[in-house]
Structure formats: structure tokens, C-alpha cells
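Why this split exists: single-chain examples teach little about how molecules sit against one another. For that reason, every record in the complexes split bundles all components of an assembly together and asks for one structure covering all of them. Below is a record exactly as it appears in the raw files.
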Amino acid sequence: MYAIVAGGGKVGANVARSLLRLGNEVTLIEQERDRFERLEDEFEHQVQRGDATELHVLERAGIARPPDIVLALTGDDEDNLVISQLAREKYGVGQVIARVNDPRNQAHFDLLGISPTVCSTSSIMALVEHEVPEHDLIHLLELRKENLEIVEVQIDRDSPSAGKRVESLELPDGARLISVMRSGRAEIAVGSTQLEAGDQILAILEPGKEDELRRVLLRR
Amino acid sequence: MKALIIGCGRVGSSIALQLQREGWDVTVVDENEDALTRLGESWPGAFLVGHGMDVDLLRDAGIEETDAVVVSTDGDNTNIVIGQVAQKRFDIGCVVVRILDPARADFYTERGLRVVCPTKTAIDTLMEAVRSCAIPPAKVAS
């Protein structure tokens, strides 16, 4: 496969190195002179110097072939957005992955249809939430394309849903229970499944329905 | 009529002042507090310090009730993103974006942004000036 990697910082350089080790053809693009010269020692002709948001730089790197994938991994969200748009919409690149540096910019990537994206801050925060649950509802997975997310909820003794069957719960539209984990064993949640204190529930829902789901299951 | 100017450099500040003189209600946003000095000592409009990609700041600046947005920071890609956010997220009909790079200017014009490319304008003006020089025919021949 042929990959263009934009941005030769820690992330970009490591991704390029890994792709090369797997036997792929790679062109890495780095703008900054010092960094480029250091990369050149290792990557030789496989690194080019330039601003990857400039069309002639992308074209020199072979974007018109087009590559199988473009990775927009610079430290600048604006640049990553523009690189992704150019790759996909001007050159017809089939696969683009963009790095989000500031999680507050995620909405801009979503707005402009840039997907998938990777944000290390968000990934770390999701892990923190999972490892040290501060909240009663933990986000496990975001299905961005489907506009759905999977969350985990722990039922406790005071929860209004404890002792109730799934079919008797007034779940909000756009939210369904997937499974119930009880003493280390998971079961698919069906209408007749009875919830008990201590159950860990997986639910799938549309983003924004968390509060309604919380109310039904936990009354909080 | 309300205008929001993002980026208060030489271009942004001049546009802000001119629109204000023409009776517009103008709000200016710049990352740098010192940029306010470009608007003179008695700037009657609003001035907010912050980054134009910050949606909360745009809301504070009243983007939801704005008729026109001019994006003129010193970064082409920043302008491209803010321009699209104003157009697609806030549904502003009149969004004008400055892009210095002619290649990116062409691409985003095709995609429906109202782009002004000062580089292209300069090239055209300079070419016109060169063409209009009266060069003696003898020199042209040699």
C-alpha cells in the first residue's frame, strides 16, 4: 500500500516508521527545516520537505496517484482539516485519518465530515473514565459514523430499575440495553431479563440521551 | 446590519472601520489584545480576545445574529476552517474568507466559499501594469 504521512513530529515519524517496517511505501512530509534534516538521516528519499497544505507539495509526494491512504498527523488541527479535505475531495483519496490535537476542535472535524479521527486527549480521558469511574455512566465506544455510542451503567440497590424487567422500563427513544453482566457472566438483554443491584449494563444510544437513560435506570 | 470580523490585522481592522462608518454594527475578534489599537482610540463596536475556532467565543461574539462574517486572520488554513464553520454550522449566508494561496483559494471557491485571494489580485494588477508599459518596438524585436 502507498501512504502519505503529513507531519513528521513524534506521531507522524513513528507512524511512518511502522508503516515502512510492515513493507509499505511511504512518503513523509515535514515543513520545519531542523526536523526535516533529522528525519532525512533516517528516512532518506522517503521524507520530503514542505507545507502539506500546499497543493504542489502534496503533488510532489504523489497525491495524484492517488495513495491508498493519507494520514494528516501535524500538530495543527487547521492544517489536518485542510489536508484531509484536499486529499479526499480534490484528489479522491479513499482513506484519510486525521489527528485531532485539541479535543475542542473535534466538532469541526465532524462538521466537515472528516472521519476517522484520533485524539489522544480524548482516548486518555476515556481510559481514565473507565479505569477510575467517577461517573455512573461510562462512555465505552463512540460510533461516529452511525451517530451512536455504547455506554456502561452500574445498577445499585437504590436504582429504580433494580428488580424490574427490561420490558417494563420506559427507555427513551434512541436507547436500548445490549447486555447485562452479573457475577462475571454477560447475557444479552431481552425483554424478560430482570435487572438486579450490582448488574453492569451495556447500552447503545444516540449521543445526548445519557441523561434520560440515567433517569430511567438510576434516577439521577 | 451586523458584521463579525475575525482577525484584526491591517486588512481586518480596515474592513471593520469602514463597515462601521457605513453604519454596520461591527464586532471584532482577535487572538491578540493589542490588535484593538488598530481600531483607533474610540472604537464603538465590540472587541473580543480569543481564537476564531473557539465556538463558544463565536457565540459570545454574537455569530448567531450576524449577517456577514469576514475571516481575515494571518493563517490561510485557520481562515478556511473558520469560514466553513460560520457557513455550515451557523448558517451565515455572507461569509467572506481571505486565502493568500491561489491554489487553495481556487479549491475552496469551487466548494462554495466566498474567497478573496489578495495574491491573485496582486498578480493580475502587476501583470496589467507591466503590459501597459510603453516599450519601444525596437526593444521588443531584439
